[in-house]
């Protein structure tokens, strides 16, 4: 009885398919780093999901509103008993990150109403524009004093 040698070895079409699949996989992996940057190999885009600087943050009305919101939330919700209120002075810089909505990281200048001293805070605010209630569309995630002079 003769046994067929084809039953133990892969068919020609299976071998060709495997080689093509390996070739496609290896060529797609060589371009993987480029997929994370808009603009491909030119490197002029930003990393998807990364923080993006907002130009002219100090004059941006949306950022000023978020800065005021952050200070108001601090005064109402975070400020400890006996601590003086702070007053919003301006936005020094801002960055935006696309998440489920937008996450803003702001450097905010404020004034301590007790001492009159300027203070800088870093605020992180999440904005969900599809929620139409102003009180629910924004959340202050963090509000932290930082060691930086607010006025250069």
From TrEMBL:
This is Cysteine proteinase inhibitor 4. InterPro entries: Cystatin_dom, Cystatin_sf. The keyword Signal applies. Keywords: Protease inhibitor, Signal, Thiol protease inhibitor. Residues 1-30 form the signal peptide. Coiled coil: none annotated. The keyword RNA-binding does not apply. Residues 59-145 form the Cystatin domain. Pfam families: SQAPI. Belongs to the cystatin family. Phytocystatin subfamily.
């Amino acid at each position: 009885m003769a046994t067929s040698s084809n039953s133990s070895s892969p068919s020609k079409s299976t071998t060709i398919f495997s080689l093509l699949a390996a070739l496609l996989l290896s060529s797609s992996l060589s371009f993987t780093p480029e997929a994370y940057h808009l603009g491909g190999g030119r490197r002029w885009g930003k990393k998807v999901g990364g923080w993006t600087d907002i130009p002219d943050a100090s004059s941006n009305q949306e950022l000023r509103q978020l800065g005021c919101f952050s200070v108001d939330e601090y005064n109402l919700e975070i400020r400890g008993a006996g601590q003086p209120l702070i007053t919003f002075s301006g936005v020094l810089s801002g960055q935006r990150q696309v998440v489920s909505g937008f996450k803003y990281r702001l450097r905010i200048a404020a004034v301590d109403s007790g001492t009159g001293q300027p203070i800088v805070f870093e605020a992180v605010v999440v904005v969900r524009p599809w929620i139409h209630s102003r009180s629910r569309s924004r959340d202050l995630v963090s509000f932290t004093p930082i060691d930086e002079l607010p006025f250069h």
